[in-house]
Specification:
Length: 81
């Protein structure tokens, strides 16, 4: 008999390939802002090793690339007793 995987079994594989519409540098796990000011969208991408010039500088609100990853970790739900 053939096993049909449940959603719980395939969810990680399915969700891994989805990239949200707002996948800009500012919400990427590899991006670090240049300053602590929220209005300043300039930062550095730490996906690749730095070059002689340093880390690549990006605009967090507009720049995108194919290395985008989220650092979002969902919080497990706790059943009420």
């Amino acid at each position: 008999m053939r096993h049909h995987p449940s959603w719980r079994e395939v969810r990680h594989e399915f969700m891994r390939d989805l990239v949200p519409i707002n996948a800009t540098c500012a919400v990427c796990r590899w991006w670090f802002p240049e300053s602590s000011a929220a209005s300043d969208p300039v930062g550095y991408c730490h996906f690749s090793p730095p070059t002689v010039e340093g880390w690549p500088q990006t605009n967090g609100d507009e720049d995108v690339c194919s290395a985008w990853e989220t650092d979002y970790q969902p919080v497990p739900r706790v059943k009420a007793a």
